[in-house]
Amino acid sequence: MAATKDLKTKTLSINMGPQHPATHGVLRLVLELDGETVVKCKPYVGYLHRGTEKLGENRTYPMALPLSDRLDYVSSMANNIGFCVAVEKLLGIEVPERAKYIRTIMAELTRIANHIVWIATHALDIGAMTVFLYSMRDREWILELFEMACGARLTVTYPRIGGVRADVDQEFLDHCYKFTEAFPKLVEQYETLIDQNRIWLQRTKGIGVLSAEEAINWGLTGPTLRGSGVPYDVRKFAPYDAYDKVQFEVPVGKAGDVYDRYRCRMEEFRQSNSIIRQCLEKLPGGLVLSPDAPGYELAAGPRKKPAPPAPPPKAEGAPAPDAAQAAAPPPPPPEPPAPAFEEVYVATEVPKGELGFYFISDGTGKPYRMRIRSPSYVHASVLPRMCEGSLVADVIANIGSIDIVLGECDR
Amino acid sequence: MNELLGVFGSGPTATFLIELLIIIVKIAVIIAITMLHVAYATYFERKVIGHMQVRLGPMRVGPHGLLQPIADGVKLFFKEDIIPAQADRPVFQIAPFVAIFATLSSLAVIPFFDLFYLANINIGLLYLLAMSGLAAYSLIMSGWGSNSKYSFLGGLRSTAQVISYEIALAFSLVSVMIMAGSMNLIEIVMAQQEYWYGMYLVPQIVAYIVFLIAMLAETNRTPFDLPEAESELVAGYFTEYSGMRFALFFLGEYVGMIVMSSIAVVCFWGGWTLPPIVVKLIPPLAAVPGIIWFILKVYIHIFFFYWIRATVPRYRYDKLMALGWKILIPVALANVIATALVKFIF
Question: A–B: how many Cβ contacts below 8 A?
Fold first, then answer.
């Protein structure tokens, strides 16, 4: 083995991303490889930077709401709710009970939809491709529910500051109930495909281990933190919306490896389902939008745009009064009442972790500063810690297990 | 027939020419039929996996997407053949031809049915192993020649993988050789007819399982598709290939699958024959041509390839090595020794 000593070896640096089939979105990792072992891993972010925070400073609070959809585009509803809860605290708006329950239902549906996308891509990265199509089939169900409630499927902007944009009807509630009845069986389907599979266990157990202390120090939140055994969940610790009125458990893992994070999210499927069930059963009547809410109010009625009414017969002279109303331009939005100087930080539990909105108000109706604490950004920073010393294949498993979306990471 | 071939005259030269002509016609027939099967094996794969994944697979080109493979072929044929500027040109250009050459040559010794084979040589099985070993060179050459890091890693992985699994594959076939007492594929099939069940599958079940796993690794199919692991190495060794050269790799992989399935059928499933007991129970089956059974058995194996692909995740590199060296090779070796002892004693 004398030859080995004299032999000089160099590490191979390889670019994983920003265009690569396995890095989610435009994450770029520069890996230094010694054979198949990762010596160094350096994540680069910012390829999807759109200046969301700065854009927010040039818009009134209701106008900035749609920006939050584009953060984490697979769970836009949860981002909207996070934004609304923060602005409501800043402006001191009380949300009606019914709206709180509807928001909770929507947030949990979003959590399920997000975790479906996560399990689909995570399993596909590890090589189990069938789970991808099974779960995408079931995600369609949720997207149809969103469409039924507000007409949009992906970037919904359904919640509003002070409530939600439109009330849900009985048809939505029936479909939602049917979904909660069917969904636990679908989760079992995903589990039969991968959970008992030896190769899956080999690929996930003992990979990317983070101790509880490390996970906290890295600032991880959400299922990525809970996989390490820390039962921290904003929904329990600082309940917003209707989370203090429903019963649910916070699933935690033990080992803090890829497998435990996977188990946590699979359990969250069931917990979210149970939360939706409870909300549907307890859903109170009443308003869905606070009278103090700033900005537009949409008319009640069908959520999809109705067919344009037939033009009134010309012989009758003056048009019908309601047609005149429809023709008139909507009144300009009043500037929302804003406190002179106040700062507020409100965190909500989005599917990926703790999404925080920090506002500084200067009394102009536009935020002086809007800062977003996005879980994906924090989670991407832990990748070097997880990947260095492991194999190339584990990098893929690790990226999947921290569940990042680059739209939210780069903002 | 003899009158028709009379144009060659008579004498030893004429006999040679006639034999040569027959061989060339046979080669053309085998390659044409195999290529058609390869085209529709891709269609079959997309349909099977599609239906396993709650979707339909190709449906647009032709009725039920039946013309899809032809459309794909035409598309690949007309695509630009891009050669990277920094590539090692000769190596890069030759690699896909090595892949298709090695797998197509394997077809020469496979007995498709009792009257139809190209070459009846005594070292048939050894020849097949040699050719599947040669196919690995194309992966190494393309990995090196592309001058791309992803291709390079893919090439390195394939070298290690093929060396590890070729041993297990060969050992699983050694026990078949011991049982048949021959390396001639036709004699192996005939030897299986001596049993009432007509297959080595029963006494050599261990060897068969080892063979199945090694077969997946040899053809770089899931769960051992590490050389082309999509989620890690983009497309592995053929990342830089496009157009016809890419298609040749693709063809090589599918012909490889057909060859491996044929070896499995010949060595473990009794080739083109039916088990004697079945023929005894249902005599009309004896009238069915052997090629039907052969193709049916091959397609059962090809279905198995697809089924595995739709079901299991990908192995990790070090676990793959551990499986090959610590489990498959010892098991196959123990099986060889057990077979030899049983053969020696009885």
Answer: 84
